[in-house]
Specification:
By secondary structure, this protein is of the alpha/beta class. It is built from 8 helices and 6 strands. The longest helix is centred in the middle third of the chain and has 29 residues. The chain is globular, with a radius of gyration of 18 Å. The N and C termini lie far apart (38 Å).
Length: 258
Amino acid sequence: MTGATGVLAGTAADYLLTQGAKVVYLGRSQTKLDAALQRAGDAADRVVTFSCDVVDRASLEDVRIRVMQQWGRIDALINAAGGNIAGAVIAPDQNFTDLKLDDYSKVMELNLNGTVLPSVVFGEVFAEQKSGNIINFSSMAADQAITRVLGYSNAKAGVDNFTRWLAVELAQKFGEGLRVNAIAPGFFIADQNRRLLTREDGSYTRRGEDVIRKTPFRRFGKSEELCGTLHYLLSDASAFVTGTVIPVDGGFSCYSGV
């Protein structure tokens, strides 16, 4: 699980641990990785943590080698690392021409390259095993024009396309044992967007109100509400499912707003 020190991915990784899985937590914060190991408690023997950069091939290859040495196989890769940078966002008082291309490129690299590169590195194991399961994290921003978040939107649209492309490629080259899917979370409160969507007193900002208005459930998601879909995609219950992007969004993606 890349990005396992984040709110959504961390909750998912913890959930998989409760279901008996052996879980490799990858993240950039050693403090948060240590906290994950502490949360594991009696299940700590099924947890491995690595400080890892998802756009650093050498770092990823080191993880692959060490996991294979310890456990002998890898069954799934969950690409959940991602994020945004202010310069790749168009603020309300800015125009598209104010975009900072350096920051835009960094967001594209983290979210898109940071999905492709781990898939390349760990996909080598899956190809050799003739089995493996890749699950990418997409976003509501991939399929709709969500204002401001230009770089993030473009990157996640790329993730959707990559998910479908790689699903076809791996199945044709290595057989039905290799599957690639994605989940597209709706709006969940996490560290990166908390101040954008809510005020200190817990009330919604104007943008938060806009999101709630377009979400038929009239609330933000809870991090644990991603776990069921993730479990399904990892399990044999979805053995004939590949190349899909599944929204978990309280209806956001199907509602026009009118």
